[in-house]
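Forwarding the complex inputs:
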Amino acid sequence: MVHETIAATNAVVTLDVALPGIVWGWIITMNMWAKSIGTGIIFLGFFLLKKYPEQTGFIRFPIVAISIVFIHIFLFFTVIDLHQMFRFWHIFFYPHLTSAITIGAWMATGFVGLLFGMAYAIYMKKDEALYDKLLGWTVLLAVPVTLYTAGLMAQSTARELWQMPTESAQMILAALLAGTSAMILLGGNKFSDLIKRDLAIILGLSAAAAFILYMAELIFGSMKAEEVAAVLHYVKGGEYTVMFWIGQVMAFIVPMIFVCLSIKNQSYYLLKIAAVTALIGLWVTKHVWLVIPQLLPMS
Amino acid sequence: MQLGFLVDLRLCMGCKGCEIACKVENEVPLSTWRLRVKYVDVGTFPETKRTFTPLRCNHCANAPCERICPVSALHYLENGIVNIDKERCIGCAGCVMACPYGAIYIDPQTQTADKCTYCAHRVASAMMPSCVVACPVEANIFGDLDDPMSNISKYIQSHQGNVQVRKPEKGTFPHHYYVGGGNVTLNPLASFRGEGHNLFNKLTHLPIGGH
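Prediction (whole assembly, two chains):
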């Protein structure tokens, strides 16, 4: 990677250590992707249960079950990414509260506890009032659980590409995109046209907003810091260009188009296709954005 | 007390004695380095020269690695050294992501983060870091930055205008200074880094560290 070299110096690194390669790879991508679904479905469930309480009561148990499954996928990949995974408990016994990892671990623990409380309330006790009360607190905790990874990326001083508040906006949008997609696939044809339309609009808008943010970073990020410019070369003709655009098309562009078509044609089938491509594309998009800053030499 | 390092790049001749001394003193495993010397060739033949830049942990006053560590494995000592407790480290690699100087790596033997500690164990016994002792030209200067009479403070005073730190824009306030450095030696983006840039082998990416 070269960015500032000039003919006058013609500087060439002839001896240095080998580059460390990708330290946070696909396991962290899985972590972020699964977490987006796990918290996103809670956001969407809360929205639907508040707006359409009569028609959406049946989603109470499924959304908790999906969230529990995906939050545990997230936790599983978080733990196996640790090089000393059996020391995971250190986070709880030697917590360092300036670290986003610590805050995230504590918040996620509380979130999981509430999820199990909700599952108990609806499955064992059949108590919808208790469920709804717990849901409010769960939504509150879902916000920091969604955002802590953005905090972690912002604390990664070496990686200029990961900036606050852009990352936090991207994390929330990813949760909405993934949560809506999961809800669309979960609901089948049980939802009314009005609910389907709401889900389509949320999916389309979150895809559009996330796409705008990525494009803004792609075009203007280079103008702020040379490291960002150097990193973005990997998706501007570099080795991750194709993967980056596959992610963008699948996660954002296809869903936007299919959402418009589904609303116009009142086709739930198209909406389901949009949901599937959004979920696949989100993984690809997250992965590219995670990996490229790690390719830059630090020395 | 605030310990710090200064390297006079005009004196360094790239012998790598410091690298080896560090490896031996700290039992740094193969393929990893707490301290290494980067070579950058500058100019066009026949007007060429080779520059040497020893690179190690900068022991920042505002260390991103210390801030991001979830279990305080990376912590400050009273003398300003950013130390690491390998027994506490969980190997999350957050510090590897946070360090703008690429000074932290995952030790392939212990599977924990590791980095230069300014030989904290030697300093505690009133000894100099091993790299300082090994340097044949005294290019490494180590001492108390809070003491205006220390060698490092005097060196900084007498070379004002020619003292630099790496990546000051990061706001990390490194306690590691360079005299006689320049963009080519201190900025990783200012020199071409081709595949197989390593003189002695063609290993361009370490297979360790990630999954």
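Chain B has one domain: 3-186.
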